[in-house]
Amino acid sequence: xxxxxxxxxxxxxxxxxxxxxxxxxxxxxxxxxxxxxxxxxxxxxxxxxxxxxxxxxxxxxxxxxxxxxxxxxxxxxxxxxxxxxxxxxxxxxxxxxxxxxxxxxxxxxxxxxxxxxxxxxxxxxxxxxxxxxxxxxxxxxxxxxxxxxxxxxxxxxxxxxxxxxxxxxxxxxxxxxxxxxxxxxxxxxxxxxxxxxxxxxxxxxxxxxxxxxxxxxxxxxxxxxxxxxxxxxxxxxxxxxxxxxxxxxxxxxxxxxxxxxxxxxxxxxxxxxxxxxxxxxxxxxxxxxxxxxxxxxxxxxxxxxxxxxxxxxxxxxxxxxxxxxxxxxxxxxxxxxxxxxxxxxxxxxxxxxxxxxxxxxxxxxxxx
Length: 368
Description:
This protein has 368 residues and is α/β, with parallel strands linked by helices. The protein has a 6-stranded mixed sheet, with helices on both faces. Strand 1 and strand 2 form a beta hairpin. It is globular.
């Protein structure tokens, strides 16, 4: 190879990096590279499939861990919910995240036999999410209560959804107060179950019922007559602490000015308000009102109806109302259940119950 033209004397020309010979076509070389890539693709997919199967095993471990944690939580009866899904929210999220990654393999243009094992694994492990209807806050399920030969409740069932005002009505002796006493665990049913937030109350003591978030008033006022109004309300706050103090609740029911008066000196209607304040002081989620309109005038009953609706909203309550004053029940209740001789004979909206023939006969007698 000679010296390049124009190169200075004594300086060797740089070595040529490109051959001066005739170049062959490059297309066959590219085709060969493409063939090599095609041969590598099954190996790449197989490796990625192996990683995916490993991730699925991790999913199984995460799901098993979530299930074990749920079983451990179920030991505490007061906190257990019988109808929870089999896996927790974290387990579901982990499962779906991995499933989305695995579905990316479906976009690869590979032989079906390479992807089929992965699809079969997915079909065994990834299930559609189950959607459960919200649980009622309170469920009375086929409850029977006997006193000797008298059947006070005969297979009674009803429910109260969160935020509802539910009326429980019927003639004298129909079993309404007995139902309240079963719910609050003063009575134990002979048959059936009572559930609050999905968990049975039958193993809970009366004081435990209050701590669970259930409070009530009584048909006949039950106060500590030798104590002041304020001290009676403090009893409710002691049973279950809430955000509001006893004095705050007395302001709410317009009794703060009487807080230092002995409860026994006050009129019957005022004593019923004291009892209501005591129930509210325990910050309940479910409030049972047993004939709150007893002893009130017509004007006071109208005011009570407006107060119950406002109280439901302000305290975010579910209210179960036993009352003989039909105007009050029909004016405030979202749904009404009717008992007669211990059996439920009707349920529905106030308008539906008002026109029910069985309800009319229970109150007025069968036509002759």
